[in-house]
Amino acid sequence: MSSLDLAVVIVTFNTRDLVLQCLQSVCEDADRTNRPYRVIVVDNASTDGTGTAIRDAFPLVRLIENSANSGPARAFNQGLLACADSDSVLLMNSDIKVLPGTLGPMMDYLDGHPQVAGVSVRLINPDGSPQKFRTSFGFSHWPRRFDRVFPITFFGTTFHLGRRSTYDEDRVGLFDENYYFFNEDLDWSIRAHRQGLVFHFLPNLPVIHYRGRGQAQNRDRILGDLYQANLRLYAKFLGRSWARFAYVIQTAQLLGKLIHLRLVGKHNSPDAAAYRLALEKQHHFMSSLRRGAALADPLDK
Question: Alpha-carbon torsion 241, 289, 167, 51, what sign?
Fold first, then answer.
């Protein structure tokens, strides 16, 4: 029997003020559940004093401090390995603010629906307006209605509560650390779907998402990684022909963006540098794929 009802895993990088707000909100709501819980923060080599601030303000939080930023996949895996004794685990970004009365109903729903492996809730902007978010890995990412419970196939890491056992090696397993930033959660969701796992969206339980604030500290590197991460996903699940087709499309997109930036006099901008890096990285990935080594190798960092 597990010793914890709930574990919370938060990954952060240079978001000190956001993660402190995040911790305050999630700890207060976890206290309301009257269930045993543990909060784990994995800090990906922040340089803004995040670690010191967390230790001072939340001494009971388990803080894992990495010496380098190896991306969310590895960081979430570290957190998952630190809560193997928990029934359920909430994976969340540091740019989330949990509203009162959120965690209890989510946990109660899992208790009452043993066939459901995890639940997700609605994301809203700080002003209360609805935010678009992904619920499927198919062609239609967003359903037309959010006022009812419905099954979802995309189970990400922004704010998702699932059974800890689904991340065990004999189930879906951990996140694929070959991805740096993008697609590690999409990869996991596809593997979970192929095993028949069921996830549900719960209405009327919004959380505030300060969208983009968490990524802003590492935007150029993230942008440079997106395109090769797509190619890895296509090659892994759809085959190399799909990856080659996507490579042609993405190359055209990147060249188009670079041409536009040159025409508007921004060919030396950070965006232009990121797009050139993306071209280089996806070319390297396709070269490795032709040698038969790309899927076994980590993404070019």
Answer: negative
Count other Cβ atoms within 10 Å, centred on residue 296.
8
Taking the model in full, what pTM does it have? 0.90
What tens digit of pLDDT does each residue of 10-25 get?
A: 999 999 999 999 999 9
CA distances from 2 to 7, 86, 87, 127, 220 (A): 11, 5, 6, 39, 41
Q: Token digits for 175?
A: 């996140």
Can you state the angle between helices 50-57 and 16-32, rounded to 10 degrees? 30
For 139, other C-beta atoms within 10 Å of its C-beta total 5
CA 279 from centroid of its chain's CA atoms: 24
Nearest to 183 by CA among 243, 271, 249: 243
Residues 257-289 as b or e (16 or more Cβ within 10 Å = b): bbeebeeeeeeeeebbebbebbbebbeebbebb
Using alpha carbons only, what angle is made at residue 190 by residues 92 and 40, rounded to the nearest 5 degrees?
Answer: 20
pLDDT digits (tens, 9 = 90+) for 115-152: 999 999 999 999 999 888 888 876 555 666 778 999 99
Going by DSSP bridges, is the β-strand pair 150-152/62-65 parallel, antiparallel, or unpaired? unpaired
> For the structural domain made of 4-214, what CATH number should be given?
3.90.550.10
